TrEMBL record, chain A:
Phosphoribulokinase/uridine kinase domain ranges (all copies): 8-186
Kinase found in the keyword field: yes
Superkingdom of origin: Bacteria
PROSITE patterns tied to this protein: PHOSPHORIBULOKINASE
Catalysed reactions, semicolon-separated: D-ribulose 5-phosphate + ATP = D-ribulose 1,5-bisphosphate + ADP + H(+)
Protein name (record): Phosphoribulokinase
Pathway: Carbohydrate biosynthesis; Calvin cycle
UniProt lineage: Bacteria, Bacillati, Bacillota, Clostridia, Eubacteriales
KW Nucleotide-binding (keyword) present: yes
UniProtKB/TrEMBL annotation, chain B:
Swiss-Prot/TrEMBL cofactor(s): thiamine diphosphate
Domain of life: Bacteria
Source organism of the structure: Desulforamulus putei DSM 12395
Alphabetized GO MF terms: metal ion binding; transferase activity
Highest classification ranks of the organism: Bacteria, Bacillati, Bacillota, Clostridia, Eubacteriales
SUPFAM superfamilies xrefs: Thiamin diphosphate-binding fold (THDP-binding)
Xref: PROSITE patterns: TRANSKETOLASE_1
Sequence ranges assigned to domain Transketolase N-terminal in this UniProt record: 20-268
Family: Belongs to the transketolase family.
Name of this protein: Transketolase subunit A
Keyword terms, alphabetized: Metal-binding, Thiamine pyrophosphate, Transferase
CDD domains cross-referenced by the UniProt entry: TPP_TK
InterPro entries the UniProt entry points to: THDP-binding, Transketolase_CS, Transketolase_N
Length: 301, 279
């Protein structure tokens, strides 16, 4: 059997931060038939009742079978199929495991996708997906307070309680990421608006997405803010996208990055543009009307 | 255990090494221009401060009063030049301000003032008090249901102060796992070797006996400092990091020399120091 080349993409981010939507949208853009998605939640080692008995959250590495996950990532890289465990979020227990085959792209998404250095080396590309806590609160209020009857205070308290585990067990992985995608509320005169701005960061000296965007900015093609910032001991180049990307700007960017020639007729939000950039990095050809066809407009639906 | 940024091998700490060099140059220049100050204990703490401010602490220099921010207290306040240089490089205030060290009217006095310098969490200089404040802040986080950490940098000579051990006892009692004390163990104080003035050894056992997790590291190794600070994520007690350092680190004629505890380099010494530190 001929072995196809598999590109492994590791994605780390908090749950409830729009990560699944991000992964879904990315898979859509790359072509669903070319993508296998592995969710690290399936690798919990303790079910919900056991976690409660021990007194830890799924954010704690101890609650997860990371050994098996490492083994599986390595198998997927070699093009082998894996017998993946299945965790049922509704019941908080495990179902029957299932066979999963690697396609051209394998996206491994979860809370600890590149917790270990060895694991991190397996991926072709590592993305840390970071959502500002105010956005997490806003989205969770919209979902939980509206549909599940929680009070706003309860939602805020729950998110704050998660923050400790996030900073202890999830955020340190940022130091291994090739790209850090941050979603932040867009504030005007100190007031936060419905709009979302996007920051893309990569280490200074790297010659990838952010580097190219900075070049486009310096050539006057792309409206954005460029600066340097420290993330976990690494100095990063950061590009902040606040404005909507108009069809002429997109055309110029697509042209410069070799995506294609036709222009979108609608404006793209910074979030949609960010998705195109990430997908474009893997050789995805930009096509006019992509967004309408695939319906990936919503950030957190 | 969390991994420690060595995925790119020796490249992993490239940015921090460069920043540490820049901070050391600032320290030498500031003290030389002021004509007085404490170079020895400032230079020994550079990697500790760099790891905290550029690598580990959750802070945003643009929002220095964010209630969720991590706190840092320089209990050994005489190392103020190291803290000022770090804060300026991290973006709390303009780097140009550094040259006003110890001038009349400057915010940057010989010991840090929380009312004048953005990013300074506690006014210090009178030794022995910083850890007590840190215990209070760590307990405050618990009361407020906040999840920030509190880091306190102590001198080793400072650990001869009785108040340090009252605070250590309280932190152990309350199992403050959000509190980290780092001891800059350079072995020297103003009057000579710490062991001659008032024996501190065995220092690790002392902290352990007060109910702390103790980690001993090379205080100039980013890799060891990161691993020690990563271990705080799993701690059920307060963490004491005993960082073995060299007083005056980076400038050979100041290294391990007790007379560089508190004097300024002259013009020639400054030039030689800067030449050694490199760009």
């Amino acid at each position: 059997m001929m072995r196809r080349k598999t590109t492994l993409i590791g994605i780390v981010g908090d749950s409830g931060a729009g990560k699944s939507t991000f992964v879904n949208n990315l898979a859509q853009l790359l072509g669903k038939e070319r993508v296998t998605v592995i969710g690290l939640d399936d690798y919990h080692s303790l079910d919900r009742a056991e976690r409660k008995a021990v007194g830890i959250t799924p954010l704690n590495p101890r609650a997860n079978n990371l050994g098996l996950f490492m083994e599986h990532v390595e198998r997927l890289r070699r093009g082998e199929k894996i017998l993946k465990p299945v965790y049922d979020h509704d019941t908080g227990t495990f179902g029957e495991p299932e066979w999963v085959k690697p396609r051209e792209f394998v996206i491994c998404e979860g809370l600890h996708s590149f917790l270990f250095e060895k694991l991190g080396e397996t991926y072709g590309y590592k993305i840390y997906y970071d959502t500002h806590r105010d956005l997490k609160i806003r989205w969770k209020i919209q979902r939980d307070a509206a549909h599940r009857g929680y009070t706003v205070e309860q939602v805020v308290q729950e998110i704050r309680q998660r923050q400790r585990d996030i900073r202890n067990f999830v955020e340190p992985q940022m130091r291994h990421a090739d790209l850090v995608v941050s979603l932040l509320p867009h504030t005007v005169n100190g007031q936060s608006t419905e709009a979302i701005k996007v920051r893309l960061a990569e280490r200074t000296g790297a010659n990838d997405i952010v580097h190219r965007l900075i070049t486009l900015h310096s050539r006057g093609i792309l409206p954005c803010r460029c600066f340097k910032e420290w993330y976990w001991g690494r100095e990063m180049n950061v590009v902040e996208l606040t404005e909507e990307i108009t069809p002429p700007v997109l055309e110029a960017v697509a042209d410069a990055l070799g995506w294609g020639e036709k222009a979108e007729e609608k404006e793209l939000t910074p979030y949609q543009f960010m998705l195109l950039l990430v997908a474009g990095r893997f050789g995805n050809k930009y096509k006019s009307g992509y967004w309408e066809e695939r319906g990936c407009y919503a950030v957190n639906s | 255990m969390l991994s420690t940024a060595s995925s790119a091998g020796r490249e992993a700490y490239r940015d921090l090494e460069k920043r540490a060099r820049v901070i050391r140059r600032h320290i030498v220049n500031m003290i030389a221009e002021a004509g007085s100050g404490h170079p020895g204990g400032s230079l020994s703490a550079v990697e500790i401060l760099t790891t905290l401010y550029f690598g580990v602490m959750k802070i945003d220099p643009k929002v220095p009063d964010d209630p969720e921010r991590d706190r840092f207290i320089l209990s050994k306040g005489h190392a103020a030049p190291a803290l000022y240089a770090t804060l300026a490089e991290r973006g709390y205030f303009a780097v140009e301000t550094l040259s006003s060290l110890r001038r009349l009217g400057s915010p940057l006095q010989g010991h840090p003032d929380m009312r004048k310098v953005p990013g300074v969490e506690m006014s210090t200089g009178s030794l022995g008090q910083g850890l007590s404040v840190g215990v209070g802040m760590a307990l405050g986080a618990r009361l407020d249901h906040r999840y920030y950490r509190v880091y306190v940098l102590l001198g080793d000579g400072e650990c001869q102060e009785g108040q340090i051990w009252e605070a250590a006892m309280a932190a152990g009692h309350y199992q403050l796992n959000n509190l980290v004390a780092i001891v800059d163990r350079n072995g020297l104080q103003i009057d000579g070797s710490t062991e001659t003035v008032m024996t501190l050894s065995p220092l690790a056992q002392k902290w352990r006996a007060f109910g702390w997790n103790v980690v001993e590291v090379d205080g100039h190794s980013f890799s060891e400092l990161f691993q020690a600070l990563d271990s705080v994520a799993y701690a059920h007690k307060p963490t004491a990091i005993i960082a073995r350092t060299v007083k005056g680190k980076g400038v050979t004629f100041m290294e391990g020399a007790v007379d560089w505890h508190g004097k300024a380099p002259d013009r020639k010494q400054r030039e030689k120091a800067l030449e050694e530190l490199g760009e």
